[in-house]
Amino acid sequence: MRILYINHYAGSPRHGMEFRPYYLAREWVKAGHEVHIVAADYSHLRQHNPTLAANYADEDIDGIRYTWCKTPSYEGNGLKRVLNIFRFLGRVMGLSGRYFKQWRPDVVIASSTYPLDTVPAAFIAGKTGARLVYEVHDLWPLTPVEVGGMSPKHPFIRLLQWAEDFGYRKADTVVSMLPCARDYMLAHGMAPEKYVVIPNGVDVAEWQGASEPLPAEHHQQLAQLKADKRFIVGYAGGHGLANALDFLLQAASQLPQESGVHIVLVGDGPDKAALVSQAQALGLQNVSFLPSIAKRAVPAFLAECDALYIGWRKLPIYRFGINPNKLFDYLMAAKPVLHSVEAGNDMVLDAGAGISVAAEDAAAIADGLQRLAALTPNQRGRMGAAGKAYVLAKHDYAVLARRFLQGLR
């Protein structure tokens, strides 16, 4: 089978996030399929963006053919990002002749945060007789309306709404990463038999392989905390507004000294300086901030922790479900998780992998941390083992890639 995967922000181990297209495509290639990924050369998600001398460049990564499309850079969510989106869409249309003549796909996947890529994908699928798949990451334009405060009457929002509805109506299959979005999609024109849920996952082989060692600074800090008999609660990831780390810091200020809990935050992000200032203002001695580490070093960090934290804002958009990559890493580490959440689904609760508490509730977070610290190592070990078993059964990319193709039938 020939699979054309259009994903504006697609990454790779060489470039950084986002990884889902790479992991799925790699599994399909292993199964004997041919996969072409079309992506923009500039993405705010990647650590390393490719450099293009012309409008297009092809690259082979682990048997997957990437075609990079030259687009303008941007910062934030202003006009330059909109220009980047439309330039990418134009580049995809410019490539369409290749897929009519040189390499005719059997499946065309439109897969981006915004739904406008459904249009060129549908055009290519229609001309080649390929099956059209609309892969939904987030519900746009609902997210910029509910979270970003944009008016539903804004011309760009109206355009996004048209494109989303077009995708639901036109696609042969709708693959949703969100487990609770079916009714919303039905209300926007999707036929019920099209709906398939394929969440995010984890590369199990990557976890089973040798991980990168921790940097010396991280190793020394953690070794000292262990020597001091601290109960280490780890967080690895972005330091942004959505991660609700300010409530974790408030919770830290409420922890009694005798709890022995010490929180270690590893990563970077737009709000890290503000969080450091907050910790200083609160006089926190039980919180440490450490620099970000390579993805392959994350397992080594998680292994040194006694428990792990993930938190969310209290946002209505989460009623459709959440699907965080970070949580899969946490569960694969076989560590108990404190989950501060209010959403349509809760994988920690479903897996029996830790304790779930209310979102944006510092007192509840502090209580949850103390409850985890009070458990015996065997009790925490059982939670961690349950979380790992849950991921292996439901979120291994080898499993998800098979389910994805089965869903097309």
Break the fold down into its secondary structure elements and pairings:
Layout: E1 2-6, H1 20-30, E2 34-40, E3 56-61, E4 64-69, H2 79-101, E5 107-112, H3 118-128, E6 131-136, H4 142-146, H5 155-170, E7 173-176, H6 182-187, E8 195-197, H7 204-208, H8 216-227, E9 231-236, H9 245-254, E10 261-266, H10 272-281, E11 287-290, H11 298-303, E12 307-311, H12 325-332, E13 337-340, H13 347-351, E14 354-357, H14 362-374, H15 377-394, H16 397-407
Parallel strand pairs: 1-2, 1-5, 2-4, 5-6, 6-7, 7-8, 9-10, 9-12, 10-11, 12-13, 13-14
Antiparallel strand pairs: 3-4
Helix pairs in contact: 1-16, 2-3, 9-14, 12-15
Short précis:
Keywords: Transferase. The chain is of the alpha/beta class and 409 residues long. Helices cover 42% and strands 18% of the residues.
How does this structure look, described?
- By secondary structure, the chain is of the alpha/beta class.
- The chain folds into two domains: 197 residues, Rossmann fold (3-Layer(aba) Sandwich), CATH 3.40.50; 189 residues, Rossmann fold.
- Helices cover 42% and strands 18% of the residues.
- The strands form two sheets. The protein has an eight-stranded mixed β-sheet with strand order 3-4-2-1-5-6-7-8. Strands 11-10-9-12-13-14 form a six-stranded parallel β-sheet, with helices on both faces.
- Helix 2 runs parallel beside helix 3.
- It is globular.
